[in-house]
Every structure is written in structure tokens, then in C-alpha cells.
TrEMBL record:
Belongs to the ankyrin SOCS box (ASB) family. It holds the Pfam family Ank_2. SMART domains: ANK (SM00248). This is Uncharacterized protein LOC103486520. InterPro entries: Ankyrin-SOCS_box_domain, Ankyrin_rpt, Ankyrin_rpt-contain_sf. Keywords: ANK repeat, Repeat. ANK repeats lie at residues 72-104, 105-137, 145-177. Gene3D superfamilies: Ankyrin repeat-containing domain (1.25.40.20). One of its GO terms (biological process) is protein ubiquitination. PROSITE patterns: ANK_REP_REGION, ANK_REPEAT.
């Protein structure tokens, strides 16, 4: 799982960087992972944001699927969402990448995009859903720690993403495994905190859960 902040808001930067490191020697980039050989071009292009390389990798993908895990349980769509590579995300969706595919920790690509604060990617993912039920499932999807995409956006204090998720129907009061609602994750006084508190107040006033 590549999503930062996986321990309920406590980010271990050293672990994150180590887990997602690329190693380059003599111009050759290799993943420190058990990525299957036939998926390595797909993994490399996805993590680096190389849209031409990604297109070539997809064209040459004769074994396996676009939705196979390529790096630490993440699919190509997870990786491109995590690192904010919008053109690559668009290409993967055009080629049929699944919006609701889960990684080894139960997170979907929307979790990754929200964690990074990539509002254009978040909007693209939501717009790519087939119907309102799909959008609802994505917004309510929880990972191994009970976090929804809104929890990730709130933890990162990504105000624009928080607004977008709330406008799309995300719940500001849903609690994760640790009993934390999205409202409690941003620091006091931040824009994200103010947006979430106002949304939670309106949510409760309407008698919503």
C-alpha cells in the first residue's frame, strides 16, 4: 500500500520514501519490489508519469490485466493517482482501468488521489463513474483503517478536494476504525477544518448519520 498517512494521520516519511523508492543505476530504473517481469514497464511508467511509456506498456500487455497489482499491491491506476499523473490517469481510464479495484489495504484509487490533494484527478474519477450508485460506493469505500476518501483529503488538509467530495455526497461525520470523523483530522484553524465543521453541522441538523 503506497498511500501516505496510513496510520490514522501519523505519517512516517522515512517509511513512505523507502517503500516507494526508485533506484537508478546507469540510466536503468528498477523497482525494489516483487513486481512480475511482464508488469514492470507498466509499473515504471505509472510511477514516473511517463504517458508515452504507459501507452506502449498497455499496447504490449499480452499477459495479465490492466487491473493487476504492479507495485506493493497497487494497480497502475492507484500509482498514477497517488503521484498525481493526470494524463496517465486519463489514459488508464480510457483503456478500461477499474475505478473500484482495491489494493492490499482495501483502498481504491480515489483514496490515493484524495491523499495527494489532486483535485483534477478526483474530479475525473468521479466523472468517470457509470452512475450515481458507483459514485456513492466510491465515496463510502473504506480501507483497512476505516478511512473513506474524505478522511484522506481531510488528513492532508486539501480544502479543494474536501469541497469536491462533500459536493459529491461524501459524509463528513462517518468515523473510521479509530473513531475519528473527517472533521477531526485537519488542524484547528485550517480552511479544511472550517469547511468540514460547517458541513458536519448542516449534516447533523438534517438528521443524517
Amino acid at each position: 500500500m503506497a498511500v501516505p498517512g496510513r496510520r490514522n494521520g501519523v505519517v512516517d516519511e522515512d517509511d513512505y520514501e523507502e517503500d516507494n523508492a526508485l533506484f537508478e543505476e546507469d540510466g536503468v530504473i528498477e523497482f525494489d519490489s516483487d513486481t512480475p517481469p511482464h508488469l514492470r514497464p507498466l509499473a515504471t511508467a505509472s510511477q514516473l508519469g511517463d504517458v508515452d511509456g504507459l501507452r506502449t506498456a498497455l499496447d504490449n500487455l499480452t499477459v495479465g490485466s490492466i487491473n493487476d497489482a504492479v507495485e506493493d499491491g497497487d494497480t497502475a491506476l492507484h500509482l498514477t493517482c497517488l503521484y498525481g499523473h493526470l494524463p496517465c490517469v486519463r489514459l488508464l481510464l480510457e483503456r478500461g482501468a477499474a475505478l473500484e479495484v482495491q489494493d492490499e489495504d482495501g483502498a481504491i484509487p480515489l483514496h490515493d488521489a484524495c491523499a495527494g490533494g489532486f483535485v483534477e484527478i478526483v474530479q475525473l474519477l468521479i466523472n468517470s463513474a457509470n452512475d450515481t450508485e458507483c459514485v456513492k460506493r466510491m465515496l463510502e469505500s473504506v480501507d483497512a483503517e476505516g478511512d473513506t476518501p474524505l478522511h484522506h483529503a481531510a488528513r492532508g488538509e486539501h480544502a479543494a478536494v474536501v469541497r469536491l467530495l462533500l459536493a459529491s455526497g461524501a459524509s463528513p461525520t462517518k468515523r473510521n476504525t479509530y473513531g475519528k470523523a473527517p472533521t477531526e483530522l485537519p488542524d484547528p484553524g485550517t480552511e479544511a477544518r472550517a469547511i468540514l465543521e460547517a458541513a458536519a453541522s448542516a449534516h447533523m441538523a438534517m438528521g443524517c448519520q
